Amino acid sequence: MNTPIAFTPAATLGRRRFLGATATAFAALSASGCMTRSATTATPRAAAGGFAGYGALVPDPAGLLDLPEGFSYRVISRLGAAMDDGGTVPDRADGMGCFALGNGEIALVRNHELQPRHDAGGPIAKGFGKRNGEFVSGGTTTIVLDAATLNV
Length: 152
Description:
alpha+beta, single chain, two-stranded antiparallel sheet
């Protein structure tokens, strides 16, 4: 049985009050002039369709990620690939951070918004605790990389 998890701070705010606060915030931004600048008054490069200071996007031959000229990317892991803990790289990553470990290595920590219904049978599905008798899954996955080469 999947029971929704209710967190007290969000529950006390209420949907209507949250929407009202959001509308007020956007109205204040609009009134302050933050949202009134048009592309024609932006930098010439931005007005021409590029990104201010970076240039136009160059199509990626691999079809993964178009970037401005001079930029590059490296695929560190792929969804569903095996991890060294026996699980697979989970879905629903919604953010990440990178931390120096002080020994020439860095830790790339990815947050995942997983729920019990996303159980793929791996260790991540077990979660770290229970609520209403069910595991609360989600959390993070960590990849340790060589800081100089970005190799795993």
